[in-house]
């Protein structure tokens, strides 16, 4: 065997093997590597988009929480206002009821004063008749002197 000839065979086999590898083996490997690279890039892009979406969702949540807090504070303020209105209405109703009760009591007192005056007039008239009887030492007929007694009542 000749060393030059062996070298030439080895060179030819090397170039055939290189050509075969470049023609049939290398393209599927490069395609698989490119597909893998694309999947990784898409995954990283999706992760970035997911993080951005998560940040945006967190902002929305914060806005919603702030809105809910504000709405809650408004409802509490409205409830306090309603409570104050109810208290004011109750006070007004109580004042009106007190005024009505006072007016009724004053009317009742006025009626009692009028009754007492009438009774007092009757008693004074009876005492006047008794006094007149004693002075005159005779009996005074109340039925006969009714006009006189009524006139005396009106004067008292």
List keywords for this structure.
single chain; about 160 residues; mainly alpha; 2 helices; about 90% helix; about 0% strand; rod-shaped
Provide a descriptive summary of the structure in words.
The chain is mainly α. It has one domain. The protein has 2 helices and no strands. Helix content is 92%, strand content 0%. The mean pLDDT is 88. It comes from Undibacterium nitidum. Component of the F(0) channel, it forms part of the peripheral stalk, linking F(1) to F(0). The b'-subunit is a diverged and duplicated form of b found in plants and photosynthetic bacteria. One of its GO terms (cellular component) is endomembrane system. This is ATP synthase subunit b.
Number of domains: 1
Structural class by helix and strand composition: mainly alpha
Number of discrete helical segments = 2
Q: What is the H/E order?
A: HH
Main β-sheet: number of strands, strand sense, barrel status?
none
**Alpha-carbon distance between the two ends:** 173 Å
- Chain oligomer state: single chain
Shape: rod-shaped
Mean pLDDT: 88
Radius of gyration: 61 Å
The residue ranges in which pLDDT falls below 50 over 5 or more consecutive positions are none
How many beta-strand elements?
Answer: 0
- Percent range for helical residues? over 70%
Strand content: under 5%
């Amino acid at each position: 065997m000749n060393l030059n000839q062996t070298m030439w065979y080895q060179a030819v086999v090397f170039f055939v093997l290189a050509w075969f590898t470049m023609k049939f083996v290398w393209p599927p490997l490069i395609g698989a590597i490119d597909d893998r690279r694309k999947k990784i890039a898409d995954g990283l892009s999706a992760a970035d988009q997911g993080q951005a979406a998560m940040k945006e969702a967190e902002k929305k949540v914060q806005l919603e929480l702030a809105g809910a807090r504000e709405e809650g504070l408004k409802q509490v303020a409205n409830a306090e206002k309603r409570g104050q209105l109810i208290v004011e209405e109750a006070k007004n109703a109580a004042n009106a009821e007190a005024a009505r009760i006072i007016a009724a009591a004053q009317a009742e007192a006025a009626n009692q004063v009028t009754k007492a005056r009438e009774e007092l007039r009757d008693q004074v008239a009876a005492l006047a008749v008794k006094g007149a009887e004693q002075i005159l030492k005779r009996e005074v007929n109340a039925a006969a002197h009714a006009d006189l007694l009524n006139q005396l009542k009106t004067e008292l």
